[in-house]
Design goal:
By secondary structure, the chain is α/β, with parallel strands linked by helices. The chain has 13 helices and 14 strands. It has three domains: 2-127 and 216-315, P-loop containing nucleotide triphosphate hydrolases (Rossmann fold, 3-Layer(aba) Sandwich), CATH 3.40.50.300; 136-206, Helicase, Ruva Protein, domain 3 (Orthogonal Bundle), CATH 1.10.8.470; 321-395, Beta-grasp domain (Ubiquitin-like (UB roll)), CATH 3.10.20. Strands 1, 2, 3, 4, 5, 6 and 7 form a seven-stranded mixed sheet that branches. Strands 11-10-14-12-13 form a five-stranded mixed sheet. α1 (13-21) runs parallel beside α9.
Length: 396
């Protein structure tokens, strides 16, 4: 699972990344602060089954707070994108190449309208333009990659008689595109599989549709603490009703997570409140009160928006589920007696055998059957996993 954090320079992109991961990154108010992509681990949040089981889990990876399980995901903060990036403008080529393996993109947009198309300070800029140009740049990048091979590829398929969708999936697997995505794009655009007869316009529409399917986007409307943001967010939601737009204050989330790390407050990421538990000075009190009253209370359903962006990307856009593999179905433990030790993010439609391979290749190869730890019912390799399943894998 790889989440790409994208956007033009100076929108709060690296602040969002640092808030989500607490990784050390350079944050500054000038374009191209991020030159080399930052990689880090963030977490999606889900209610842990330990509450239902009346047990206390002990995760091998991630952590659990107040029965909320935080499951690790990889985040990539890439260099800022500017118009013309697909032609190499700014750090465009580097930016785009870093995104090849991303499963989903979080587009950080400056909802305040105080930065122009290149990330420079301004006033009354329309943030809707940022969404349009980013999608255009991604489409042109995809088109550039695919079109340069297209004629050779279609001739090869005609001569060798290979199935077109299979051959395309092989050619473009480096963009994390599979055959089902290709078929879906063809269907959505009402195209036929005789690729050699497609016009340039049809090829571009196919490429654009494939980009939307393989690199879905969620909008983090950042800087909600600024007075111009509220009206701009309404505009974003109206003009881009097909996209998910989440109001966000990455700076507030970073402040809360750093305060929690330093034991000044108790805070569960994604919640709309916190509790002061440490000694805070007057400046810190003022800052925390601002976050509580102006950010958390006014956005009670999403909090600062950072955690909500991650959760929405993984569980709503990609529709992933969580499965908990165990070795002892009676006590819900592994061999070291850790309760619910692992939480695996699995794509929709995953089967018991897929979970076995996700645990380890050898376990997948030695798979015999699975067991539902709750019901103690034996399951076949083709059993389709349900969200929050607790599963024991039996091997040879």
């Amino acid at each position: 699972m790889l989440i790409g954090v994208v956007g033009k320079p100076n929108t709060g992109k690296s602040t969002f990344f640092k808030a989500a991961t607490l990784a050390e990154v350079t944050i500054a108010s000038y374009p191209f602060t991020t030159i080399k992509a930052n990689e880090g681990i963030g977490f999606v949040k889900k209610e842990c089954p330990d509450k239902e089981l009346k047990l206390e889990c002990k995760p091998n990876h991630g952590f659990c707070l107040n029965n909320q399980r935080f499951i690790p995901v990889k985040l990539l903060d890439v260099a800022g994108l500017v118009p013309g990036a697909h032609q190499g403008k700014g750090l465009g080529n580097k930016f785009l190449d870093d995104l090849r393996q991303a499963d989903v993109l979080i587009h950080i947009v400056d909802a305040s309208g105080t930065t122009d198309a290149e990330g420079k300070a301004t006033q009354d800029y329309d943030p809707c333009q940022d969404i349009l140009f980013l999608e255009e740049e991604l489409d042109k990048w995809f088109y550039g990659i695919i079109s340069e091979k297209w004629k050779t590829l279609t001739r090869k398929m005609q001569v060798e008689g290979k199935k077109p969708t299979e051959e395309l999936a092989i050619q473009f697997s480096g963009l994390k595109i599979n055959e089902n995505m290709i078929k879906q794009a063809i269907y959505n655009q009402n195209l036929n599989e005789n690729f050699a007869k497609w016009s340039d316009e049809q090829l571009f529409s196919f490429v654009s549709e494939m980009r939307k399917i393989s690199k879905p986007i969620i909008i983090a409307a950042n800087k909600i603490d600024l007075p111009t943001s509220k009206q701009n967010i309404k505009k974003l939601k109206t003009n881009f009703s097909h996209l998910i737009v989440i109001p966000c204050s990455a700076e507030s989330e970073l402040a809360l997570r750093e305060a929690a790390r330093d034991n000044l407050i108790e805070y569960v990421p994604g919640n709309n409140d916190f509790k002061v538990i440490g000694k805070v000075n007057e400046k810190q009190i003022k800052a925390l009160e601002f976050v509580k009253n102006k950010i958390l209370k006014e956005n009670s359903s999403t909090g600062t928006g950072v955690q909500d962006c991650l959760n929405t990307a993984v569980f709503n856009l990609l529709k992933y589920i969580v499965a908990y593999p165990v070795e002892n179905e009676n006590h819900y433990t592994d061999k070291n007696n850790n309760i619910l030790p692992d939480a695996k993010l699995m794509p929709p439609g995953s089967r018991a055998i897929d979970l076995a391979f996700a645990i380890h290749t050898d376990i997948g190869k030695k798979f015999v059957a699975a067991m539902d730890a709750r019901t103690k019912k034996r399951l076949s390799r083709e059993y389709e996993l349900k969200d929050n399943d607790i599963i024991r894998i039996m091997t040879k």
